[in-house]
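Hey, can you fold this one?
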Amino acid sequence: MDVVVIGGGAAGMMAAITSAKESNHVILVEKTSSLGSKIKITGKGRCNLTFDGNSEDFKKNIVKNYKFMYSSFTRFSNVDVVQFFNDLGVKTKVERGGRVFPVSDDANEIVEALKKELVKNKVKVLYRTTVEDFILQDEKIIGVKLNNGETLNCDKCIITTGGKSYPSTGSTGDGYEYAKKLGHTIVDLKPGLVPLRSNDKICKELQGLSLRNVGLKLIDKENKIIYQDFGEMMFSHFGITGPMVLSASSKLNRVENVETDIANNKIMACIDLKPALDSDTLDKRVCRDFEKYANKEFKNSLDDLLPKKLIPVIMKLSKIEEDKKVNQINKEERKGLVHLLKELRVSISGFMPFDIAVITSGGIDVKDINPKTMESKKIKGVYFAGEILDVDAYTGGFNLQIAFSTAYAAGKDENIIEKKGEK
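Sure. Predicted structure:
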């Protein structure tokens, strides 16, 4: 068959390789001058390929539409992804949190391995080329028109143009326009895995401070928990960021009417600075510190408990005078300090923009897509894979796994063979 793949990212290259291995003639159309631009910057340039875990781990880390992913993940799982790259000569390792990286810590190795496999399987790549229109006949695709005026005939077209995040890599949302043109519904697009804004002064005061082994909760106006996790975060001049915050953002942007709640200061981030200790145990710990520094001023009593940069902020929020002798701090003040350490609150004022978002939340409504094959239910022969779909996950290699699983399903030919047999 003649197959056209639009978009040369992770999903596009995997779909093209998979399809070419089915003995198809495959052409990969890429709008920029290089392949895998976004892969090169994932995992801070190290490329968190996938995760080390089972299907339950995958399920609990999918923000939306896990059921849609069940079939494709079962067919091409995280174990299969690791084996695929190992077979290409890429050695992998597992790090904290079950994150899988190449041993080289170099994302370029992943891109080069995929490019070599494209060459090996005789996939033709058209750089600096875009698709301008689709040629349809009887609700089936038979070709695509390119920006250079050329027409490519095809039996199958796989659209893997990515989302709107990191537009500098070429992900500018073209695929959504293609999908709309072909009759598909697009679920609202929002930045996913993105830092959160806050207007609170403490964020600027604490900018650059990284916190490890802390708890984070996002709560709504009714104190209902939207997201909860334990790990790393960081303060910035614009608000808060870090792995936990990025994952929290993807959960938050799926909340109904979230923009209104944010505008009304109804969304709060609650940071537990001492999650290993419950309130009573932490109170006893503070009592011990206060006994140790009984004759010192309050401002000199927290060095054993908190990072230096955090102390002035905590003192100010506790409303305990910084020059007050520790032995003069009463029980009510101490209890207030303990509560503050267990629930340091930061109001959320919005999301940072798409250009620094790791992924796009939203996309093509999966009701329009066959979950086993990734074929459109609207137009025969059209397939979608990767970030363009309304499926996204938390940090940890899960989003690349979505790309690889859906691309593999889209690249396989069993469904087309069955249709030809039926005819």
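The chain has two domains: 2-191+355-422, 195-352. Let me know if you want another pass with a different chain boundary.
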